[in-house]
Amino acid sequence: MESEKDISGKIKTLHYKAKHLLQQDYSEDQVIARLQQDGVDKQYAATIIENLKTDDNNRAHFRSLLLLGLFTTIGGILLNILSYRASANMHFSMFILFWGIVVGGIITLLKALSVYRRIL
Fold it and tell me: For a FRET experiment, which of 20, 60, 70, 95 has its CA 20 to 30 Å from that of 29?
């Protein structure tokens, strides 16, 4: 019986091979055929390709959430600073606090973190 490390290594090797073939512009059917030559079931080969697509989509989604979260959080903090400075320069005793923008940005960053955990 094979150990978990051996099985995990074989799975990673199959995923790497499929990813490498797809990057070389092989069609999905050609990749499935090549994996079948290595003794992989057709359905499992199709599952590997779907997993690779999902990983790519998750990476793109992570990057977009990360950029949106950073932009929103930093933008909200800058708006708060500008609002405070404007009220201080005009000698007002209160200023507008844009806390919702900062919280929204932090929530978006947390969503990006959860997507990143799925990638690993």
Answer: 60
Distance CA 11, CA 37 (A): 15
pTM score: 0.73
| Mean pLDDT per 10-residue segment, the chain (120 residues) | 78 90 92 91 92 91 97 96 92 88 97 90
Domain boundaries, the chain: 4-119
* First-to-last C-alpha distance (Å) of the chain: 27
Report whether 110 contacts 66 (CB < 8 A).
Answer: no
Cα–Cα distance for residue pair 35/85, rounded to 1 Å: 63
